[in-house]
């Protein structure tokens, strides 16, 4: 076998080196799954709110149903960008105000998620798995411009959970907290600058926290 000309051998070596640099970046994109799924309601009552966010995110974001509701027996397609990752937290709120959550769900491995009798019985949560998330409800006559929630173990309030939004009268904010951290302090600031605090609340024992 005759040896390759020197110039051709050099060119092939450069191509192989370039391929070695590109392939490690291309592989993850091919392996990335699709976290989208259908949420199915078999609860026997209407679902009025749905929230989905990556498990590492601190906030639930906006209600995906917006002005719609999901009746019993219905399904709702949830389209999630692959860049959001496979591990998602899901929260629904039923017509009677009762919330239900599923944490750290690998939605890349499912085509549907069922809420209600069709989902099977769930074991009672242990103390470390208790759910401290709740709805902060504005039943006052003024707009709430800031909301802060922090564990009693923390020495600062952290970020305003409303961000650049406000909470008008009659609306509520779904406050998302890590499982098991039940004792929390809550602070709100009304539009006129007045602030109001509730200390050492066991939010694992509540669904709604109302400010008037």
How are the strands ordered across the major sheet?
3-1-6
Elements, N to C (H/E): HEEEEEEEEEEEE
Contiguous uncertain segments of 5+ residues: 22-31
The coarse silhouette is globular
Radius of gyration: 24 Å
Report the mean per-residue pLDDT as an integer.
84
Distance between the termini: 89 Å
Helix content: 10-25%
Number of helices: 1
Relative strand content:
35-45%
Q: Tally of extended strands? A: 12
Q: Oligomeric status of the shown chains?
A: single chain
Largest sheet data: 3 strands, mixed
Structural class: mainly beta
Question: What does this molecule look like?
Answer:
The protein is mainly β and 212 residues long. It has one helix and twelve strands; from the N terminus they run H-E-E-E-E-E-E-E-E-E-E-E-E. The chain has one helix at 6-31; strands spanning 37-42, 47-54, 75-78, 87-94, 99-106, 112-116, 134-138, 144-151, 172-175, 183-190, 195-202, 208-211. The strands form four sheets. Strands 3-1-6 form a three-stranded mixed sheet, with no helix packed on it. A three-stranded antiparallel sheet has the order 2-4-5, with no helix packed on it. A hairpin with a 4-residue loop joins strand 10 and strand 11. It is globular. The model is unreliable at 22-31 (pLDDT under 50).
Describe this protein with a few key phrases.
mainly beta, globular, 212 residues, 12 strands
Please write out the topology.
Layout: H1 6-31, E1 37-42, E2 47-54, E3 75-78, E4 87-94, E5 99-106, E6 112-116, E7 134-138, E8 144-151, E9 172-175, E10 183-190, E11 195-202, E12 208-211
Parallel strand pairs: 1-6, 7-12
Antiparallel strand pairs: 1-3, 2-4, 4-5, 7-9, 8-10, 10-11
């Amino acid at each position: 076998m005759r040896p390759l000309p020197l110039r051709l051998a050099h060119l092939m070596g450069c191509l192989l080196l370039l391929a070695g640099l590109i392939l490690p970046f291309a592989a993850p994109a091919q392996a990335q799954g699709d976290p989208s799924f259908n949420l199915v309601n078999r609860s026997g009552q209407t679902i009025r709110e749905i929230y989905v966010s990556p498990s590492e995110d601190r906030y639930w974001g906006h209600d995906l149903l917006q002005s719609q509701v999901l009746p019993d027996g219905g399904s709702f397609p949830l389209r999630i960008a692959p860049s959001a990752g496979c591990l998602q937290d899901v929260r629904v709120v039923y017509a009677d105000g009762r919330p239900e959550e599923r944490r750290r769900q690998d939605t890349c491995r499912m085509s549907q998620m069922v809420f209600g009798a069709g989902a099977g019985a769930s074991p009672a949560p242990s103390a470390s798995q208790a759910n401290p998330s709740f709805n902060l409800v504005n039943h006052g006559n003024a707009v709430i411009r800031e909301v802060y929630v922090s564990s009693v173990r923390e020495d600062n309030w952290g970020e305003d959970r409303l961000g650049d939004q406000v909470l008008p009268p009659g609306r509520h904010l779904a406050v998302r907290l890590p499982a098991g951290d039940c004792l929390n302090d809550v602070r709100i600031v009304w539009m006129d600058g007045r602030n109001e605090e509730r200390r050492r609340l066991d939010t694992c024992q509540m669904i709604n926290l109302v400010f008037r």
